[in-house]
Amino acid sequence: xxxxxxxxxxxxxxDRCSIGDRSPGFIPNEADxxxxxxxxxxTGAYKESNWLPVQDRSFALAFRIYWxxxxxxxxxxxxxxxxxx
Length: 85
Description:
With about 80 residues, this protein is largely without helices or strands. About 5% of the residues lie in helices and about 5% in strands. The chain is built from one helix and two strands, in the order E-E-H.
């Protein structure tokens, strides 16, 4: 399969292809932050509300920001660090 024919949406058991603070069941952290778990296997029942299933190979991560604050527009905002656990 070449890159052009690779599907952009990965079929998964929970039928989720995106996640955000308005996703049903999403559990935020304190201070209006959130932890999103991106991995191939389920994170377990407790963390599944914040799980974004990904393929079992390398993948790209993209942010889509609607109605951004001025800090984003001025390029003064940076997303939180991405930690591999």
